[in-house]
Input
Amino acid sequence: MPSSSYKQLEQRFARLGRLHDAQGILHWDRSVMMPTGGAESRAEQIATLDVICHELITDPRIGDLLDAAEDESLGDWERANVREMRRDWTHATAVDAALVEAKSRACSACEMAWREARPKADYALVLPYLEEVLRLTVETGKAKAARFGTSAYDALLDQYEPAGRAADIDPVFDDYAGFLPDFLDSVLARQARETAPIKPRGPFPVERQRELGLRIMQILGFDFHHGRLDVSLHPFTGGASGDQRITTRYSETDFTSSLMGTIHETGHALYEQHLPKGWRHQPVGNSRGMAVHESQSLLMEMQASRSREFLSFAAPLMREAFEAEAGDGAWRPENLFRLYTRVSRSFIRTEADEVTYPAHVILRYRIERALIAGDLLLHDLPGAWNDGLKTLLGVVPPDDRLGCLQDIHWYDGAFGYFPTYTLGAMAAAQLFDAAGKAIPGLPAAIGRGEFKPLVDWLTENIHCKASYLSTRELLIAATGRPLDPAIFKAHLKARYLP
Amino acid sequence: MPSSSYKQLEQRFARLGRLHDAQGILHWDRSVMMPTGGAESRAEQIATLDVICHELITDPRIGDLLDAAEDESLGDWERANVREMRRDWTHATAVDAALVEAKSRACSACEMAWREARPKADYALVLPYLEEVLRLTVETGKAKAARFGTSAYDALLDQYEPAGRAADIDPVFDDYAGFLPDFLDSVLARQARETAPIKPRGPFPVERQRELGLRIMQILGFDFHHGRLDVSLHPFTGGASGDQRITTRYSETDFTSSLMGTIHETGHALYEQHLPKGWRHQPVGNSRGMAVHESQSLLMEMQASRSREFLSFAAPLMREAFEAEAGDGAWRPENLFRLYTRVSRSFIRTEADEVTYPAHVILRYRIERALIAGDLLLHDLPGAWNDGLKTLLGVVPPDDRLGCLQDIHWYDGAFGYFPTYTLGAMAAAQLFDAAGKAIPGLPAAIGRGEFKPLVDWLTENIHCKASYLSTRELLIAATGRPLDPAIFKAHLKARYLP
Output
């Protein structure tokens, strides 16, 4: 008896999932271990696996199997799995191989030009490459839009945030853009009235920082039997299923950002570590999307760990790790809290605080929508950037290095990714709020370094659900309502204007 | 115009080569970096790539393309490439997928049983698993023999030593087995008359050992732009093309074996680093086989580095690395030379000196030939082992842990591998002898830590040739004659009975 269409799909997607796992290790190794001379060979290995994966998912049989499986008698998770398979398959088959390859080449060339242009603040140098990337991205977006029945931008957004729609994001971001100027003025005025926090004095030996990071990871519940902590230039969470690898980077003169970075990546890794094992390598068993992923990292970092409670618990651990004197005021919890919640108008997104971060994201979101729609020409990007930041945040970057050249995303072809950062931040606030209502004494538990109740709640309400529900359904199931940006604003008010 | 059959083959084998590279990184990571909980997922990743590689090479089109390519007008290297492609293809297509999978499963089960049986010295525990492995290995050998027109054993040997034949090995090994008893008696008698070498006193901090190892690797010419040194339980050379990774292991109480192990693996890695880049990912661009590979590691370790010249050069580096007192006699070159050339009758192959090592190999070679031919039953393996070692080396292991359970090879299905160790040792002596004649003042150069002339000679005569020639042709081209075991014996006489 031939196996059901569903079972055949499961086998094919399991093979794909295992190849994606292999690629996860190859990508991790490239960023963490690979000697520089291995780059050419590694690019060939990864490209070969990309081609094989593309061949597997665009196999003409898949479409027939999906049609047939949708008529079979399936369980709920199996049905959701078919839905996710169809989504992956639609993305893959919407564009022909020639366009995929042309875009891949254009992105590689543009990224290389960007690496040269950024330190020189020379946007003109990268502009012709970016023109080509944008042209092929628009073509990709239109081809996918035709299949998904959405706009080109929404089709691109769907790659990172399944079922995400600009029509849903616009009011959320417009509301925050309206809220921010006055709120930021008040926060900065309040900060100015307080004494400035004291920065702990280093040097902070890397080995001590690493030990402290490992200890905090353990406290957060990271499973070292199924993961590692290493160093890379740009911190990330990667690896394979059952083998989550996070990275950080250390500065001997400042341990604070590395430590919060480690906590942030631990949030990502906990999500991956708690995905349902029974659905490993199946599309429904994957994490839900980038907004939910970012909600998990930002919940751990911004909500749980930049809190008075956690910093009261962590202050003595930090002080001991660096053998600082007990009387040194820099290590007092209240000082660390003020240090970790310092707000400022700044140019660089990745260094921004949680109050101003959404402004950086909203700027990029508005610009990329206009670029994809053809309402803004790339020639005018630097001007639009500077005008936009002035409006949103009241500052203008002195050059494009601190402006439109700062992020790799567009130069690597990632249009539609940026909004997930702020959607994630808002979801994090909403989930933490719901967890606080569901778990009696949660802040006090965090103050004792007890993360198990919180992580158990996240596991049950988010991690274990994988891609069974949509992002919207997931939030409703966990918190009782869809994304509500008022909760994020309430969190900011409580923390910054108490 | 369709591309030539040869070009189509090149493309198909390039894809295979790149996947093998990816697997090289996954295997390295498994031994060096992977958290234990990643094992299940990793096994799935590797198995999936194995299946894909098997599908690619057994694609029915390949046979036709090979036939057609052999009629095309090709350059010498291209013709050799087709020859090597046909060899790989014949190995892959000789056995059906069911047998490949059954053997793979049997080996995994047997290896696991062996890991339990070895520490307990309990051969009976692993026997039923080994029966199954042997049965499937014989079946594999017979299937391949039918295609290659050889005996089953030679077909198995060909997997590791292309074109290797038992009929050529028998006289070489018989000759050594006849030479060894008297020679060994004389060496041991001579050693007994000398004062015993002094072992340098530790502890030897791991970080210092690593620094010393890195320094010696640099002196030998290892390209760190294209490679790394790491730690694993069992030292090996792995990685991918353009990215050679060697491993070692450290003991705080003894640095000597780790250092020579690092030099040994560096010899392997230099071979890989100097393979012709233009033939990367093509069968003709691969290393020639295990005997030639072992000749490169043993040439660096046994011939070049366990010499008075090298140890005179290295002694002060070692002493400084561990901050030993200048007057400490343990660090004198002559003492280190005697320590590094100590001979003894021992049970464990991997710890054996270069005089007795071939006896361990000859024992295994004779036994595995008898097992494959059906002339020896596995039930009688421990007895045959102990009798054989008594005859060859004059000692009998007290239990099977120190006897027939010591090596993983057979329990993992590797029959036909063992002879390559001693063929490699003999080829190393022959190549080093030829290099010494071709390079004026080679010993003195080594005494100054100048390895470039030697490595350049090896690169030109061995590394750059990749798989263009057969092992026999390669040796003739480099040294003027096929493998001549007299040169190895002469080397031993000169070093151990001067």
About this structure: Chain A has 20 helices and three strands.
